[in-house]
Amino acid sequence: MAHYYSKEQQVVHNRRELTFDLRGISLRLWSDAGVFSKGSVDYGSRVLIEHMEIPVKSQVLDVGCGYGPIGLVAAKLNPSGHVTMVDVNTRALALAQENAGLNGVSNVTIHESDGLNALVGKKYDVILTNPPIRAGKDVVHRIFEQSYHQLNGSGSLWIVIQKKQGAPSAVEKLKDLFGEDSVEEVAKDKGYRIYRAIKS
């Protein structure tokens, strides 16, 4: 059975247009069956977007971009920088590419990658992820490990995760990678937690 974190989707298309307003940015987004949070932008993604900090001219990576809300807002907040958006789901990637064009976002690169596997050697100032919890702890923790190695010094990893879906073990893993004092809970909202881990 295919999941939103599967490469190919066999479910029948059911395209719908969503509107989205946050951080003073309005987006029109096409969604479809077979992608994460197809009916509306996921609440956890909204909380992450509300709190993420994108420095000027930074190189940003959105891991598991889906149809694009997090990465496209990051690109709008960072017009002099660049955002790379990756996902394993080819249907989601096609939507993200379409949505970038629909919203006039040109400072993005969108391509297929399982976690950061296709990005070996690339370095980033900020990595953002609403990780695929249903894919399992091993997949999520691999994204954290890869992110740590591909962040520039003083770079930050931002994640959103629900307390009931593995936040304690996620924090433990982040502290193992980044150090006890380098992981901060930035916000909590309706069971969602936003964590920032800074690479020293």
TrEMBL record:
This is Class I SAM-dependent methyltransferase. Signal peptide: none annotated. One of its GO terms (biological process) is methylation. Pfam families: MTS. It comes from the Bacteria. Residues 27-196 form the Methyltransferase small domain. Keywords: Methyltransferase, Transferase. InterPro entries: RsmC/RlmG, SAM-dependent_MTases_sf, Small_mtfrase_dom. Gene3D superfamilies: Vaccinia Virus protein VP39. One of its GO terms (molecular function) is methyltransferase activity. SUPFAM superfamilies: S-adenosyl-L-methionine-dependent methyltransferases.
